[in-house]
Sequence to fold (461 residues):
Amino acid sequence: MRERLTEREIDAQRHPLARFVGLAAYEAAGGGVRRDLFADDDSGVYLTDAVLLEQLAQAKLEAVAEGARREGWGWIEAVPNTTAADLQGFQRAPKEPRQPNAREAKRIAKVQEKVQAIEVALQEAIDAEDDEKADALHDEGYRLGEQLDDLNAELMTYSPTVRGAAGVVVTLDRQGEPVIHRGLLREAEAKALRALARAQQGEEPEEGEEAGEAPEAKTASQSEKLTRRLSAHRTAALQVELSRHPQAALAALVHGMVQRVIHDGYGRSLPVGVSLTPQDKLEAYAPDLPQSPAGVALREMQDAWGRRLPQDDAELFAALLAMPQPELVKLLAVCVARTVDGLDGRETVNRTALLAQAVGLDMGAYWTPTADGYFNHVSKAVVLAAVQQFAPESVNRLAKLKKAEMASEAARLAAGSGWMPGMFKEEARAENEAQREDAKAQADAEASNVAEEEEGEALAA
Fold:
């Protein structure tokens, strides 16, 4: 009978909205109540104005959502009655790790030290067959592992781009406590982020997706696959140049030996990229490499030395002993050059930068932008951005073409322009800086000579 009488009323003690708003705030706003004479304490209090209760809950929840609004999210919804089914309709935005601050790094390092100490003590307990101690240490290690996982989880965050697209739902749980669900994506927002990610990798958006006007989409460059292809060309070109610079090859070889023998260090690595393992698998990443200037030069160079040197080990050693030192150093340069490994899928990483600068690598002598070698593998936006640099008057015309036609025309316009993709411009900058330094040194020397001549003439007079 009580349930029938109260079915249109709200239990002040159990209902999430009533618990969240509070009985005092509800009554202060003029809400009506009915108290059960047969109940003890506040357990028999029922709220009769559901509309007022929802209004009060909404206003209070909006105040809770105010903090989330300052976090830079694309949208905020304060919805008191959100179900699990409602939340399942959203996709979850991706997170990425951030660098810990000094306090966080100190806490993580402290926990890691404890974990390492526990591992050592646990192994000692196992060796001593002390099962009781081993079990206790195992439990302690598990607890510390969970603590370390929690610390690392705190470092996972949403990028500004993701925050600008994703949103937040502020709602209540069954106990009437506010809950904030961050990083929610509607279908349209999820598609936009996927399109943006493809644009950043130099790929075309899928059908129905738009990259939007996000700044990141405009600065996107190329995919990892294309980056590896270009780095293979750069590596081959560097191998050719290093084979022609015995002094740099010898320095690169000795550099690695000094690190390991003199400095006793294996972890340090300067942008040299020389080892004792030949890097002869570049064609797997750049199918057009064998016909390129670098590929042809490497093949001819290796064939020439192969014809001169005997195959037998003893005969080879005797031939090397008898070889004049300048010739031996040239051979050393060829062998060291073939070990250079600059392959990488990250556009901003160049593990051979120092070596390229040392030999004055000019990628313009070894690589030219073609449709098959570059423009077919980047988005239309990237193609047009490149054309803007070497043929700005043609941008509007190319923008109306289909992708294949645009790539072909861009390659035609780029021929002879000297244009290079961003990852090759580093070598050009280094070479230009070196040329400027040489010119400055030469100018200083000439000025010094002129000054000496003038001083001599003055003394003679």
Remarks:
- The longest strand covers residues 178-185.
- Residues 208-220, 265-271, 428-436 have pLDDT under 50 and may be disordered.
- The two ends are 129 Å apart (CA to CA).
- Strands lie at 10-11, 33-35, 45-47, 75-78, 91-92, 96-97, 156-157, 167-172, 178-185.
